[in-house]
Amino acid sequence: MSENEPEKTPRAGRCTIVGRPNVGKSTLLNALLGQKLAIATSKPQTTRHRILGVYSASDPPTQIGFVDTPGLHRPKNALGRALVEEAQGALADTDAVLWLLESPSDRTHGPPDLMQADREVKELIASAKVPLVVAFNKVDKLKDKTKLFAWLTYVQERIAPQAIVPISALKKRGLAPLINELRKHMPEGLLYDDPEFVTDRPERFFVAELVREAAIENTHQEVPYALAVMIDSYEEGQALTRIEASIIVERQGHKKILIGKGGSMLKKIGSEARVEIEKLLDRQVFLGLFVKVVPNWTEDPSNVRRLAMETSS
Ligand code: GDP
Ligand code: MG
């Protein structure tokens, strides 16, 4: 990303949140998302990820879906080969990892206690090549900030994350700088034209995610994971919810793969996604799917936004 990128660039994506029990993950999510969202979205979404909630802001336009990757942060002996592979697969389709560590307190001495489990997490993240942001939580428990500086240096040298941000989830301090660091790693473009939309109706974000998931699962390596899903229309009727969505790809070849012979692939993706969406919304759903080619859309967010508006009108 270039240094002089305009601050208003819309960005949206997913962030895996990891950290030992008690480090403050739930507190942070509640602080970022607001109680309502965290509750509304606590259902398990897929086997690989659990979507915990969506952070959404309009200035600058940002949507970050926080996900939890089961099995990523477990004690050493549970970290078998299968687990590693699963966690790696899950990491490969998130845009960033947020790793919560506990900040030093006035009572701690010496360098941070990076346990074996932490070192394994570090290796996993490094091998999956996902950007990593470290947050030192609970800085409110520390008066002598020189200690914090020593810890920052220690973690910078050993883990070398993209950024380290001191925060207090409880006191809601440092959250804006944290979001700012995370958004740098989110792909350009938004899932919706109106960011506020997501705050009111988080289920639309998950609907898009479920379509994306089904598309990725069915096409494996052939289509890059950077495909986008736009919700074109969403109508809550009496009997069912009518949803139309577009899968956006960059190349004609990818469109062909997604549609499949006589539309068979798109049909499969659609019916798999619909089953999951019906579980999420707990009602009957009609799902209409389209595939659109927008060359280099990731480099031109205005393109994606215009396209979304055209199809919804
Ligand atoms: P999780 O297990 O990682 O989800 O951790 P929780 O969010 O449940 O937090 C564990 C404990 O740490 C709770 O008692 C929180 O109130 C506390 N906690 C979380 N964030 C902070 C913080 O920034 N400062 C302080 N002092 N306590 C915190
Ligand atoms: Mg928790």
Word description of this protein:
This protein has 313 residues and is α/β, with parallel strands linked by helices. The chain has helices at residues 25-33, 35-40, 81-92, 116-128, 145-159, 175-183, 195-200, 202-219, 252-259, 264-281, 301-312; strands at residues 11-18, 50-58, 61-68, 96-102, 132-137, 163-166, 228-236, 241-249, 285-293. The strands form 2 sheets. Strands 2-3-1-4-5-6 form a 6-stranded mixed β-sheet, with helices on both faces. The protein is elongated and about 65 Å long. Mean pLDDT is 79; it is low at 42-47 and 307-313. The structure holds guanosine-5'-diphosphate (GDP) and magnesium ion (MG). Guanosine-5'-diphosphate binds at residues 19, 21-27, 137-138, 140-141, 168-170.
> What best-fitting shape do the alpha-carbon axes yield?
elongated
Beta content: 15-25%
Please, how many helices? 11
The assigned structural class equals alpha/beta
Rounded average pLDDT: 79
Q: Uncertain runs with pLDDT below 50, 5 residues or more?
A: 42-47, 307-313
| Small-molecule components bound | guanosine-5'-diphosphate, magnesium ion
Q: Which sequence of SSEs, written as H and E, runs from N to C?
A: EHHEEHEHEHEHHHEEHHEH
Q: Please compute the radius of gyration using only Cα atoms.
A: 20 Å
The counted number of beta strands is: 9
Q: Can you give the helix content as a percent range? A: 40-55%
Strand order of the largest sheet: 2-3-1-4-5-6
Biggest sheet: strands, sense, closure? 6 strands, mixed
Oligomerization state: single chain
N→C terminal distance: 33 Å
